[in-house]
Amino acid sequence: MFSVTCVAPVNIALIKYWGKRHEELILPVNDSISMTLSTDELCAKTTVTASESFETNRMWLNGEEVPFEESSRLQRCLNEVHRLAVASGSQKVPPTWKLHIASVNNFPTAAGLASSAAGYACLVYSLSRLYDIPLNEELTTVARQGSGSACRSLYGGFVQWHRGALDDGSDSVARQIAPSDHWPNMHVLILVVNDARKKTASTRGMQQAVKTSQLIKHRVDQVVPDRIIRLREAIASHDFQAFAEITMKDSNQFHAIALDTYPPCVYMNDVSHSIVSFVHDYNERMGSYHAAYTFDAGPNACLYVLAEHVPHLLSAIQKVFPNDLADGGTYLRGLPIPK
Ligand code: PMV
Question: In this protein, which residues make up the domain named Mvd1 C-terminal (predicted)?
Answer without folding.
Answer: 188-339
